Amino acid sequence: MGTDLTSGTLLAGYRIERLIGRGGMSVVYLAEHSGLKRKVALKLLASDLASDEAFRRRFVRESELAASLDHPNIIPIYEAGESGGHLYIAMRYVDGRDLKSVIREEGPLASERAVLICAQVAYALDAAHRKGLVHRDVKPANVLLAPGIEASDAEHAYVSDFGLTKRASSVSGLTGTGQFMGTIDYASPEQIRGDTVDGRTDQYALACMLFECLTGEVPFDKEIDVAVLYGHLNDSPPRPSESRPALPVALDDVVAKGMAKDPAERFESCGALVRAARDALGMAPGAQPLVVPHRLWRPTLSRKPRLAAAVAVALAVLIAVIVVTTRLVGSHASSPTAGTTPNTAALVAVDRVVRVDPSTGHIKVEIKVGKSPTAVATGEGTVWVTNFDDDSVTRIDPTSGKVQATIPVGNGPQGIAVGEGSVWVADRFSQDVVRIDPGSNRATKTFPVEGATDVAVASGIVWVGTTSPQAVTEINPANDTESPPIPLKAGDHLAADAGAVWVGGGARLVRVTSDRRVEPADTVPEGITGLAVGSGSVWVAAGRNFQVAGPLFAGKVYRIDPHTRHVEASVQIGKSLTGIAVDRGTVWIAGGDGMLSRIIAVSNSVEEPISIGARATDVAVGYDSVWVTVDAP
Q1: Considering the entire predicted model, what is its pTM?
Q2: CATH number of the 96-281 domain
Q3: Contact status, residue 313 vs residue 306, Cβ threshold 8 Å
Q4: Which of 70, 98, 126, 137 is catalytic?
Q5: Which residue from 186, 205, 183, 207 is spatially nearest to 115, judged by alpha carbons?
Q6: Helices 270-281 & 111-130, crossing angle to 10 degrees?
Q7: Which range has the worst mean pLDDT, 165-174, 440-449, 593-602?
Q8: What is the CATH number of domain 10-91?
C-alpha cells in the first residue's frame, strides 16, 4: 500500500493536512488529532518496510521504547502503530527547519553555532544511550531547529526519528529483508560491516555531522556509494581545517577521535566529544555550569514551634529589613509592575508567585497564593503551588494569571510534581502523598509515606523521597500501589530521569533505577540542598540552607556526569540556593538572597542575575514564563 495520502484523509484518528517532507524510507505529513485537536508530524514508513512482518513487530516494540525517552532535545513521540496497512509514528510538530536545509541554504555554520547545535544533539543521544537505545541514523536531516527565545539565542535542536532505534548491543546494519537502516554519509565502520552497535555508533555519526556543520560538506563526498562506504572503512577522517583554514587544528583531532575506525578509540560519550570541540574553540573559558536546589528544606519540627521561632526572629530583624528595603526601592512594599527592569531590586509582597518574562527578565505580575509557598510546578496546562502553612495547593491559570482553585491537602505540603495525568504532593507532617485530579481539583487518593519530603515523576513511576527514615518509595500510578521503601542514607531531594531517580541527602547522592538498584555517586562535602537533571548532567546544590529570617549562607553547585556518577566541576554561586528549573537549554536559579539567575546550559555562560527583591523558595518554567514563589519580603 502506498504512502501518498490526500488532504482530509483520516488515519488512526489523525486528519491529514499537508505533506511536510519525503525521504527514502518515509513520508511525513502535518496532521491533526481529531479528538485532541493537536497538530502532529505524522510519519508513514515505506510500504516495503510495512510489509515485512519481522520489521513491523520490531518497529512497534521499539517505538514504545523510544516514546519513553523524556528529554528536551528529543522530539516526543505521542503514538506509534499500524492502521490500514500503514506503519505510522505521531510526534510533536516543530515549526522550524532541519539542519540539513540550514547547511544547504547557508553553507558552513559559524564554529560556535555548530558546536552549540551539536551539543544539544549529543545530550539527547547520551540520554538515549543511558536507556540502552541507539539511534543508528544521526544526520542533519534528523535534527530540527526551532528559533531561540531571542534573536541572539542559539536555536533549540530536536533529534527526530527515534522511532527507528534499536536496542544497544544488537546487530545494526540490515533488516531481515536486507534493507540498510542508516544513511551512508554518516554510517560507522561497524554499522557498514553489520557488527554489533552501541552508542559509539551514534558518536561517529555525530562527528560526521559536526564536520559537515563546520565545512558544509559530508566527510567522504564521493560520486558513488561504494566509494563513500570505502572511505568510512579505510580512509583517514577528513580535517575541518583543510576546508576552513581559520578553524583551529585542535578541531581536527576532535573529529578524528570521534570518527575513529575502532569504537574503543572514540570518546567515552557524545557529550565528551562536544566538550572537546568547545575546548578546542576556546568557548567560555573557565566558565562552569551552575545549578541550584530543587526544593526548599524545612526543619523537621512541628509547625507551631517553627512559626513561633519565625515570629521571634522576624521581630528582631524587622527594623533592619525596613531600612535595607527602603534604601533599595525608595518606598515601602509596593508591587513591581510590568516593565520592571532586570537587576533592579523591587520589594515583592509576602506569599506570592512572581511571573517573569524569560526574554526580558521583567517581572510581569504578582499572584497572591496561600501562606508560605514552598514549591511550584507546571503541567496539565496549569501552574501549581504548595502552601506550607496553609495546608493547600493553589492552581493558577498561566494565561490570565488568575487563581482557579485552592485545594486542601494534608499537613505541611512541601514537594510537588505533575505527571501521569495527576498532581502529586508530598505532605511533610501528615506523612503522606496526595494525588490530585486536575479535572475535578480534588484530592482523589492519599498514600501513607512516612517522612515524605519530595516527589518526582518519570517513566510511569512516582518517586517519593523521605526522611526519618531516609529512603525512597515508588508509587505505581496505574494501580495506586506502593512498593516497599528502599533504604538509603539520602532522601530529602529528588530529580527524576528516564528510568531512574537521583536522590540526595546530607552529603550522599545515589541513583535508583526502576529495577530498584542503588548506584552511588560521588559525595559532596557541604551537604546537599537540591537536585536537578538537565542538559546532559545532574546538578547538585550543596551548602547550608536558610532558616526563616535567618542568616544567608553561600552555596556551591556540583556537576555530575550521569554515566560515571563522578563530579565533573564545582562552582560557588549566590546565597541560600532554593530552586532550579531547566527549559530550552536555559537554567533558572532562585535564591534566598532575592536573586533569580539564568545560565545558558550549552555554553555554560552566566547571564546577569535578576533581582526579585524578596526571598524566593522555588522556581519553575512553563507557558513562556518563569514562575518564582516568594514567602517573605
Answers
A1: 0.50
A2: 1.10.510.10
A3: no
A4: 137
A5: 207
A6: 160
A7: 165-174
A8: 3.30.200.20
DSSP 594: S
Q: 44-58, 99-113, 349-363, 419-433: lowest mean pLDDT where?
A: 44-58
Alpha carbon distance 462, 384 (integer Å) = 17
Arithmetic mean of pLDDT over the chain: 80
**What type of residue sits at position 255?**
V
Domain ranges of the chain: 10-91, 96-281, 303-632
- DSSP letter string, 273-323: HHHHHHHHHT-STT-------SS----SS-HHHHHHHHHHHHHHHHHHHHH
Say how far apart CA 17 and CA 492 lie, in whole Å.
49
Tell me the per-residue pLDDT of 433-472, one tens digit each, with 9 for 90 and over: 999 999 999 999 999 998 899 999 988 899 999 887 889 9
Burial code (b: 16+ CB inside 10 Å, e: under 16) for 94-132 equals: bebbbbeebbeeeebbebbebbbbbbbbbbbbbbbbbbb
| Residues 25, 393: Cα–Cα separation, whole Å | 49
CA angle 91, 377, 68 (to 5 degrees): 30
Give every CB contact of residue 324 below 8 A, 6+ residues apart in sequence: none
How many angstroms separate the CA atoms of 383 and 404, rounded? 10
Cβ partners under 8 Å of residue 356, min gap 6? 362, 363, 364, 596, 610, 625, 626, 627, 628
Q: Edge-to-edge strands of the sheet including 382-387?
A: 373-379, 382-387, 392-396, 403-408
Amino acid, res. 450:
E
Cα dist. 323→326, 329, 332, 594 in Å? 5, 10, 10, 16
Report how far residue 42's alpha carbon sits from residue 40's, in angstroms, rounded to the nearest whole number.
6
Please state, as a whole number, how many other Cβ atoms lie within 10 Å of the Cβ of residue 194: 12
Does residue 553 surpass a pLDDT of 90?
no
DSSP 211-247: HHHHHSS-SS--SSHHHHHHHHHHSPPP-HHHH-TTS
What 3-state DSSP class applies to 511?
strand
Do 10-91 and 96-281 have matching folds? no
Task: Give the SS3 label for residue 583.
Answer: strand
Collapse the DSSP code of 341 into the 3-class scheme (helix H, G, I; strand E, B; otherwise coil) and give the result.
coil
- Going by their DSSP bridges, the two strands 508-513 and 518-520 should be labelled as antiparallel
**Sign of the CA dihedral with 51 first, then 53, 59, and 61 last:** positive
Residue 168 has pLDDT above 60, yes or no: no
Question: What is the topology classification, in CATH, of domain 303-632?
Answer: Methylamine Dehydrogenase; Chain H (2.130.10)
What does the pLDDT read at residue 331? Answer: 30
Q: Where are the alpha helices (DSSP H) in 68-188?
A: 99-106, 111-130
Q: Report the percent of the chain where pLDDT is more than 90.
A: 41
* Residue 77 confidence (pLDDT): 82
Say yes or no to pLDDT of 78 above 90: no
Give the torsion through C-alpha atoms of 452, 454, 458, 462, to 10 deg. Answer: 20
Task: Specify whether 153 is catalytic.
Answer: no
On the question of pLDDT at 360 being above 90, the answer is: no
Name the E strands within 442-594.
442-448, 452-458, 461-466, 471-476, 481-482, 486-487, 493-497, 500-505, 508-513, 518-520, 528-534, 537-542, 554-560, 567-575, 577-583, 586-591
- Tell me: pLDDT of 74 over 70: yes
